[in-house]
Amino acid sequence: MQQTLALIGFGEAGSTFAGAAGWQAAAAVWDLRADRRAAAAGSGLQASDSAAEALVGAPLVLSLVTADQALAAARDYAPLLAPGALWCDMNSVAPGTKRAAAAAVRAAGARYVDVAVLAPVHPARLAVPLLLAGEAADAAAEALSAAGFTHVRTVGAEVGRASAIKMIRSVMVKGLEALTAEMMLAAEAAGVTDEVLASLDASDKAQPWAARAAYNIERMVTHGLRRAAEMEESARTLADLGVEPVMTSGTVRRQRELAGRHGLLTASKGEAA
Predict the structure, then answer these.
(1) pLDDT tens, 40-80?
(2) Which candidate in 77, 112, 223, 240 could, as Cys together with 102 as Cys, close a disulfide (CB 3.0–4.6 Å)?
(3) 231-to-3, 174, 176, 235 alpha-carbon distances in Å
């Protein structure tokens, strides 16, 4: 089967998309971690021995690395891209970071696309909402749709616009998670968890607060480090806009603090539902 795309990074997002789409040999994969390259090979994809091997001739590239490596990946791999290749930067980073990455990709003769992923890849998979921005956004929308993505929308020709939507939205989404954890930590320390949750239920009937608290905290425990890195980019976004990221900086600390702390709160185990 002819290669039609390349994946840079084969973590949760890359493996989820590849499995849902059934790309198999049509997709080449490069990841710095050998275990992830092995997982890609086990899924029927082309596990490459180098980034150069994965990128050679690939018309569509999905960059799915961690937030702190997004710019480095663009700069390091841009010279390896085929002329005119679409580099879809799907990482959660600030608009300024994406503009810097775009400069590197364009200098190498390829096309850069700012892609914002607006929801967790589970359970949405290929139906996850994607916002695209940049001069090549329309071409990328067509290519991503052909690859199997079903919820793709362009939001402008300016790189950073999609990322701005994502980063500013994350101030609320991840901030609520961090505030939830802070509330629950205090409620358990004071021995008033049931009463606090009941009082919130009384004022908001959309979803029981025990379930909401459990979900928010599970997200932080499971993905806190990744979310903290993303929120650092949100803080940078606000600072670039002249807004002091007071709460957002606190969210970074709380997300990082709770990462990996399984069993920390009884309510997060669903026992209070």
Answers:
(1) 999 999 999 999 999 999 999 999 999 999 999 999 999 99
(2) 112
(3) 35, 8, 12, 6
